[in-house]
Amino acid sequence: MLPQDPYILLSMINMKLRNQHKSLDDYCLSENHHKNQITETLAKVNYAYDPHINQFK
């Protein structure tokens, strides 16, 4: 289950992307999460995924 707080989600996702996964798609596939749910939640607090640096900014 993903954290409901967008800032906790941001921290968790960026840590996982930095340490364990080569892309957001890779993370979602291996952790069985919906990419749209993550991107929409983080967009509400003005963060978007940047595939070039593999993190939300």
Automatic annotation (TrEMBL):
Organism: Petrocella atlantisensis
Record Pfam families: DUF4250
This protein's name: DUF4250 domain-containing protein
